[in-house]
Write a structure and sequence with these properties.
Elements: E1 6-10, E2 15-18, E3 26-27, E4 36-37, E5 49-52, E6 58-62, H1 71-83, E7 90-94, H2 111-138, E8 146-148, E9 151-154, E10 157-160, H3 161-165, E11 170-173, H4 175-179, H5 201-206, E12 221-226, E13 235-240, E14 250-255, E15 267-271, H6 274-281, E16 285-289, H7 298-310, E17 316-317, H8 326-330, E18 334-342, E19 354-359, E20 365-368, H9 374-385, E21 392-395, H10 412-421, E22 427-430, H11 433-438, E23 446-454, E24 460-469, H12 472-476, E25 506-513, H13 515-520, H14 531-548, H15 553-560, H16 571-574, H17 578-592, E26 602-609, E27 619-628, E28 635-645, H18 652-671, E29 677-678, E30 681-682, E31 701-706, H19 724-736, E32 742-743, H20 747-755
Parallel strand pairs: 6-7, 12-22, 18-32, 20-21, 24-25, 28-31
Antiparallel strand pairs: 1-2, 1-11, 2-5, 3-4, 5-6, 8-9, 9-10, 12-15, 13-16, 14-15, 17-25, 18-23, 19-20, 19-22, 23-24, 26-27, 27-28, 29-30
């Protein structure tokens, strides 16, 4: 058995399956009832396992966070289908953090796509092991047996998986044997792509689902934080809690000492209830020495970005083939360039940030909170607490909204530090809405400058894309940053999408970190990450370039989606490349009636993106119909059509819901969502001024269409966000003849643009 082998162990307690990544799996009954637990997994390949008890019930361990996307249902059905067990016998378990589970992260629309090959192999291994166990019992060839609905059948003989478990058989697979395991033909899958009952709907509808904000521990105290004026560099200079002492239940006020540097200058007000803590916090007087960010506002971030882009030596250059664009631009018959901006965008998830922390009887620090990236957060917690990472565990809870905010587990640190100050006593911190929004890790404001070169026949011969923003990966986990062809590191989540699938000749993509943004607040990953703003620039620019070339925007794009060279696509997910992007674009254009006459003030717009990463593209096209009121500047999106090619669709209902939500999120960020940094603080603190899409603003027609595909699944949580904003901007131009190049596109922006026509 190799180090990357596979172990199936059947005992009286149950049968367990595990994929060790780089280590040999071993039984560890002290840490789980019946799981084969691997040690730390390789990056991007988290370990996955499951168990079957002697009644035939299958328990699937899920390392992904549940935040409304029904991820457990999607992943479990992949395994159950390949294992050949009835859906009614499947249970999902969201596991707690531990090194043995490997990399635990829920983001990037990775969950189903990355789980697809691993879970299918896991299911196949279990099916083969159980067939062989039955064949041995009956003294027949394994070829004479077949697995069917949780049983092994041979002629008139049959035995259930549960009965086989009781036999106590062990089967090991070498790596070569594992790779050679027979997988079902896609056409024979019974659960994948078919309607099934979601395994987490019942708890949510009955109110039994437990979210982080519901966490309780006997003897806990509540904490309400007082946030300093700046994210970094603040120090408490004076504190007076005299007035707070009159509040019934008030206990004390702590000034946190944070070795991790996550929450400098924080003050925690402790009381016997949330309401007492919150009331007392309003009476505590604190003075701070502020950080340098107190001098920084949104315009400073944007202007600094522009200055950074002026220096061609700054930043990383991505590998996009021929990047030697300068001589091509030098001989071009014509060139075209534009700049695109985006404002700061907050997460504003419904469940405010919260965490319950304490030290248990085994000297382990338990953190009870919803979390999207346990592997990142436990390391920071260990630093803050001054303990080994093995002494920290995050208990799994459902998330009342994540959208990338809970990838950064910074909100767990103050609760843990307060508990440490109380010698491990349980402390529960629940932020108010305003505190949550002020402590956000937002999508940074961005500046993008795009250029295109044409020959004498108006054919595209070169393109450049220069982008700068705050880099969340650089700030929080720089080891995830690759290097460009010039040797400079870059944040892939702050440039993905700019490396598009259009064939444009010589192509240069340059990513530059906005160091002022990084130093002024903590940039974060927000649903669709960089593709939500790089796609905005690319698809707005493609539309403008089409008009510059005197071509129809649809035809212009299709001419460039030639699926040649690096744009031909390869691998199980990206196979087909640009031709698949062309297909979704054609479909969306047909759905909206591209080219048909529209009433006055009404226009159609199209855009097409590939979700996020070139290695895991989800091809998405958006077509919209909008009406623009020239007097008020209001943009009414009347039709919003999304066409998606995400390979094999594992969970049809979930996929449609994900894409609907993502498309409406894209609409919200296009027209309504945007904040600003004002002297180191975000100007918005609640939903009275921060105004995401309301129900009445939702288009009457929102349609999602999926392209049938045999390619391996890609992601669905984020990609439908990405083409919506540029499609709307392009439709606005077709409706009233003005171009908007900043997100969000507000009524004031529309009126200002119209006043210049």
């Amino acid at each position: 058995m190799t180090r990357r082998g596979f172990l199936v162990a059947v005992t009286l307690a149950g049968v367990s399956f595990g994929f060790p990544r780089g280590v040999l799996a071993a039984m560890d009954p002290a840490t789980s009832d019946d799981a084969v637990l691997p040690s730390e997994g390789a990056i991007y390949e988290p370990s996955v396992w499951y168990s079957i008890d002697n009644t035939g019930k299958v328990k699937v361990n899920i390392i992904r966070a549940e935040m409304g996307q029904h991820v457990g249902t999607s992943i479990a059905r992949i395994l159950a289908d390949e294992l050949e067990v009835p859906w009614k016998d499947v249970e999902i378990v969201h596991v707690d953090s531990a090194k043995k589970w490997g990399l635990m992260v829920t983001g990037g629309s990775w969950s189903v796509s990355q789980s697809w090959p691993i879970y299918r192999q896991a299911g196949a291994a279990g099916r083969v092991a159980l067939i062989e166990a039955a064949a041995k019992k009956w003294a027949v060839s394994a070829d004479a047996c077949v697995a069917l609905d949780g049983k092994v059948v041979s002629g008139k003989q049959e035995i259930s998986y549960g009965e086989l478990v009781a036999l106590g058989v062990t089967r090991e697979f070498s790596e070569a044997e594992l790779k050679a395991l027979p997988l079902k033909a896609d056409a024979d899958l019974k659960l994948v792509g078919k309607p099934v009952t979601s395994l987490d709907i019942a708890n949510k509808t009955t109110g039994d689902a437990v979210f982080g904000i519901d966490a309780k521990r006997e003897g806990m105290v509540y904490a309400s934080p007082l946030l300093p004026p700046t994210r970094y560099g603040a120090k408490v200079t004076q504190l007076d809690d005299t007035a707070a002492k009159a509040v019934k239940g008030y206990r004390q006020t702590l000034v946190l000492d944070d070795p991790s540097g996550t929450v400098p200058g924080w003050v925690m007000v402790l009381a016997d209830s949330y309401y007492a803590a919150h009331k007392a916090a309003g009476l505590v007087k604190v003075s701070w020495e502020v950080g340098e960010a107190a001098k920084v506002s949104e315009a400073d971030i944007i202007n600094h970005g522009r200055e950074l882009l002026k220096d061609a030596a700054k930043g990383a250059i991505l590998d996009t083939g021929d990047t030697n664009t300068a001589p091509v631009f030098g001989k071009a018959a014509s060139t075209f360039e534009q700049e695109y901006l985006t404002q700061t965008v907050l997460h504003a998830q419904m469940e405010p940030l919260n965490a319950l922390a304490f030290r248990n009887a085994d000297d382990i620090w338990e953190i009870h909170s919803g979390c999207q990236w346990q592997s990142l957060t436990t390391a920071v917690l260990a630093t803050a607490l001054g303990v080994k990472e093995e002494q920290v565990t995050i208990r799994a809870y459902m998330l009342g909204g994540g959208f990338g905010r809970r990838l950064n587990g910074d909100y767990t640190i103050p609760a843990a530090l307060a508990s440490k100050a109380l010698d491990g006593k349980p402390v529960k911190m629940v932020m108010s809405r305003s505190q949550d929004m002020q402590f956000d890790s937002p999508r940074s404001a961005s500046v993008q400058q795009l250029k295109m070169a044409f020959d004498a026949h108006k054919r595209v011969i070169a393109m450049e894309h220069h982008a700068t923003a705050g880099w969340p990966t650089q700030v929080m986990v720089p080891v995830f940053m690759p290097k460009g062809i010039n040797g400079q590191p870059f944040d892939p989540f702050a440039i993905a999408g700019a490396d598009h699938w259009y064939t444009v000749g010589a192509q240069k993509v340059r990513a530059v970190s906005n160091d002022l943004a990084n130093a002024s607040f903590r940039p974060g990953w927000l649903r669709s990450v960089s593709a939500g703003w790089t796609g905005w620039a690319v698809e707005s620019f493609m539309d403008e370039a089409a008009h510059h070339a005197g071509k129809d925007p649809l035809a212009f794009r299709l001419d460039l989606l030639t699926a040649e060279g690096r744009n031909a696509g390869s691998g199980p997910i990206a196979i087909g490349g640009a031709s698949r992007q062309a297909a979704v674009l054609k479909k969306a254009a047909a759905m909206i009636g591209w080219g048909t006459p529209q009433p006055t003030g009404t226009g159609l717009g199209i855009a097409s993106t590939f979700g996020q990463e070139r290695e895991m593209p989800t091809w998405v096209a958006c077509a919209v119909q909008v009406h623009v009121d020239k007097v008020t500047g209001l943009v009414d999106v009347q039709k919003l059509y999304i066409v998606v090619d995400a390979g094999i669709i594992v969970d049809p209902d979930g996929a449609e819901a994900q894409c609907q939500g993502a498309a409406l999120w894209g609409l919200s960020m296009a027209l309504f969502e945007g904040s600003e940094l004002v002297k180191g603080k975000f100007k918005d603190s609640n939903f009275d001024t921060y105004t995401p899409l309301r129900m009445l603003q939702t288009p009457p027609e929102v349609k999602i269409e999926f392209i049938s595909s045999k390619a391996a699944p890609s992601g669905l949580g984020e990609p439908a966000v990405t083409p919506v904003a540029p499609a709307i901007a392009n439709a606005i131009y077709n409706a009233v003849g003005v171009r908007l190049r900043k997100l969000p596109m507000t009524p004031d922006d529309v009126k200002a643009a119209l006043s210049k026509v």
